[in-house]
Structures are given as C-alpha cells and as structure tokens.
C-alpha cells in the first residue's frame, strides 16, 4: 500500500521550476514519495503521460522529476504513482483515488505577479474613519445634498455610524495617515491599501465624481474668508459651496500634489501603496453624468449626459430614451446614484479609464497597484469584461512593470487568472469564509450561524483546499487574506456567534460577549497561511461592528486594546522571522472537532501550526515527519504561544518522537513550532 501521507507536490519553487515559467523555458516538476515506496511515478501533462525519474533521496523521501519545454498555452498536470498492488493520483487536493481535471495543478506561461506583493502584510484604510489630521479640510454641515440628505460633519469621533451613514463625515484624511505612519511601521505593515480616494460626494467614495483628482476633503482645501462668508450667506445653496470647495482647480491640484508627497513618504519607509479603482460604475455627481446639475453652465465644463442628449458623454451611459435629456438610465443594481459605465459603446470612455489606470501608477504619484471594485461586473458581456481587464493589465504594467492588480471577487477567479488580467483577488472563498465558519460558525456578514460548520476542522480543510485549487500558486501567494473589511462585519463581532445587523440588534450589541481569544487564533492563522495578510484598520485595536456601515467605525484612538495591538505586532514579526511562512508549501497534518494542525515548509526550514479552538484542553500527536522533520533525535523550537488572552514569543524546545510532536494545549490556544534544516545538517 502506497503511503499517501508521504506524497507531496505543489507549485512552489521547491516542486516546480521556474516558479513562473515563460514559453520555451525548461520546466521541471517534482513529486515527493516515501523512500522506496513506489515502483513507478508518472506526470500527466495536458493529458500526456510522462515517466518520472528518481532524481534524489534524503533517506526519508524520494524525489521524482520530469522536465519539458514550456509551451505557449496553459499547462495542466497531475501525478500518478503505483506499486505492485496500489495506484493513486496526486493533484491540488492531495492524494486522490480518481483525478478530476478541475483540481489539477496549472499555470499559464508568461503570467507573472510582482514579487513584492507575494506574502506582503497589507493594512486597509477607510480614509474618513482612520484619523483626522487636518480639520481645515473637513466636510461642513449641509455642504451638499446627496441620496436624500445633507452632509453632516460628525464632531464626536467615537460616535457609532448611523444606519444610513453615507452623508456622515468624520474627517479622516491623508494627513491623518501621514501622522500615523510610525504606528503602521511599528506594527509591521508592508503595504497600505486605500479605499477610494477620488473626488466623490459620499464618505465611502465608491461613486466616483472625477477620476483625475484626489478628493480635497481628504487632502487640501484652501479658501479665503470671503468664500467662507458666501457659504453661510447662501447656506441653502449647497451645490455652489460644493463646487467652490471640491471642484476648485487650486484645491484639486494641491490635493493631487499632497497625495504624491504621501506616497513618496510611504515609499521612503519601505512600504507600498495600492488604491481602489471603481470602474464598473461612477457616481451621478460625475461630470460625465451630472444628474444633480452641479456642473451645469459652470466654467469650461461640458454638459453632462443627463442634462443634454447632445452631451459628448452621452455614449458613456445606457439611457432608456436615448434622444431625450433627463431620461432614466442604467444604474448598477438599479441605483440611480451609481450609473453603470457603457464601455462597449464608447472607445473614448474605454481609453480614458485605461489611461487612468496608467496615470496613477506613474510619476508623480507612483502608486504600486490597483484594487478593482466589483471587477467581474464591468461591461455588459463576459467577453468584453475579459478584453477590458486584459487591456487594463497591459496598460498599467506598461507604465509600471511592478504594479499589482487584484480584484474584489466572489466565486472562482480562474478565467481572469488564465487571461493574465488579475494578479489575485480579495480572498473570500479560500480564506475569510472557511476560517470564519470554523472559528465562529458565522457567515461573514454576521447574518447567519451554522452549527454544523462551527469547529469542524475537516470541513475547514476541505473547503480551503477546494477553493485554493482555483489559484495558480503566484495568485495564491499574493491573495489578500482578510478577517474583516469595509463590506463585512468585524471579525471580533463574529466571535459572539450572534446573527444581527445594526438595524436589528443596535450598535452596542456588536461588542457583547465577543471572545478575544478566538480573534487571536484567527490572527495567528492569518499570519501563517499562504497569501498576503490584510489587516483592516482598527481590527488590531479591538474594534467591533456589524456589517456595512457599522464595520466602518472609526479607529478608537485613545481607547485602543493595547494587548491586541501587541499580539498583532508579534504575530506579524513571527511571519517575517520564519522563512517558510512567506512562500513555503502548506500541508494539512491533522484536524478534528475544534482543532486544526498544518505545516509550512521549504528546503530551508519548516514549522507546524496547531490551533485548538475548543473550550477544553486537547492533547495531539502531530505527524511532523510529513513536512520533513526527522523522525527521532531532534527537537523543534516553539516560537509562539497564544494562550487565553495572553501570548508569548519565548522559545521552548520539545523533542520529536517517532516522527511526531506531542503537544497539549489548553482551551482556545495555539502554538507554532519551528525546525531549521540548515541548522541541523
């Protein structure tokens, strides 16, 4: 019988070289088996069987290899091994009795992800709620009217968001980010991902008004006393005030210049910057649409498509009555404030947005990439969608070869990866959801609870592996692994295992009965799992909240959970300190009711992560031999222990016996043990 636990292969550099092949490269695939355990190993490459040769052995494992010249088209492959009386396949799910092509390893020649984005620690900032560094640029009460209400300047920083919150502005800005860069650096952040920054009348800014400028309310507003008096004299005329403050060329240009200065400072600290691109739709305030008439007969602005059937922007949108002004038009999900862009009917629009993609990754802004909002929805056909994102990818990479492009997406992203359109995605299916179900039993919006998924370690691994199989390895290594973000409930609130929203439960209930121990377990998984950990601002400080808009609470400056911040700092440092945690292989080792254990490893070192989410002590014998640890006469070093609401990074050694690490963990605790192959040669 073939030892299935010993079989291993993946798409890391230790098992496939080159890591990101080009057409014409010599590609070598490697399969690990137990020493002298199989009589024949075969690689099935694009349906063609190729015999593999035993290239080396280390006494515990044999390593079979096969090489071939990389073709121009997509390569899919799996392995098959047999002995005298047994036969088994090996694919992305591991050892299987029947191979399914959808789970085969695969890659597209020539498709590459920027190296800096792989395994990088991101920090997501919702600008209005992070820190107010300059009160002079704050939105004023009644400054303009949008979605049925006037703007409100929220003067109490710690106020809960309203159920209808789009017009409430807390004053967070880019100056606030500049002032907190020391904090982010000390936390261990390597890249900042900003929610939208472009001119917009909402606090979330997913309704872009002008793609060419940073919103002055996030950066620079300068005006003299005369203009300030004009506002108070005409306080019922909100649009003129808004025009003066936000569409003032002086404010717009200075805001762009300030953003360039901020990016330069972030880069000087060794960090990267990614910005949010909302290109499926714009806002009704956009100068192209101008539904509210704020640009009408102002300066040199052309008439918006809503105001005139002869507008030069008319083809940018799909109108119900094309020949009539003020006709109904297509909105994303039917929202009139979010007019959907009609790319297929306007080459000019397409070119404008492609140029926008290139503009912000170039001088003088030099951002390091784009996060793409509702990217699969763009356009009116799947064919055009792929065509557009391929062109966007090429334009952005032409301007900045190291720019990283990742998309908001639910479901399989394979077709966009295969087309070389997106580098990766916000990792809901292969991280946020399975981990949330396992540790809390909650859906990621806190809208439902599933007892059957809560603490089921086997279903966790099954879900993870199946969803991870949709990613080529470079896309997996750069996937944004978040616990929370602006669209979902805060993970700490999910730990109370209560289904609810701000409307049904009220804001105070979001913090009732939360379990910080569970939060810490989730953070440890986040920092030891393949991909790029993405910390949502204030998660590390203990912020809670139901789903949007309650998840957009302000950072609790002055009321931070300092212990949780210290935990994040230590977990991030652990990730950086252990070599294999960034790009190493991953292998599930054991799972059961309330616990999971997995190994990360490469040719230099390995570690085992043990998570006990039970409300009681457990004892496990973890098969660390499966990740290459010698069976006897060696010790592994504990590098991290999360116990209750406390943690320790003090080292402690434990002997490996019979290829297993014997560990006892109290309730709601976890540990990471490490072994260096180089130090023990």
Keywords:
single chain; 681 residues; alpha+beta; nine-stranded antiparallel sheet; eight-stranded parallel sheet; 23% helix
Give the structure's gist in a few sentences.
With 681 residues, the protein is α+β, with helices and mostly antiparallel strands. It is globular and about 85 Å long.
Can you characterise this structure?
The protein has 681 residues and is α+β, with helices and mostly antiparallel strands. It has 16 helices and 33 strands. Strands 25, 26, 27, 28, 29, 30, 31, 32 and 33 form a nine-stranded antiparallel beta sheet that branches. An eight-stranded parallel beta sheet has the order 22-21-20-19-16-11-24-23. Strands 3, 4, 7, 8, 9 and 10 form a six-stranded antiparallel beta sheet that branches. α9 (428-440) packs antiparallel against α10 (457-468), α9 runs antiparallel to α14 (516-528) and α14 runs parallel beside α15.
The computed structural class is alpha+beta
- Strand composition percent: 15-25%
Rounded to the nearest angstrom, the radius of gyration is: 27 Å
User: Tell me about the biggest sheet?
Assistant: 9 strands, antiparallel
The N- to C-terminal Cα distance equals: 31 Å
Mean pLDDT: 95
Stretches where pLDDT is under 50 for at least 5 consecutive residues are 229-238
* Shape label: globular
Helix content: 10-25%
Number of helices: 16
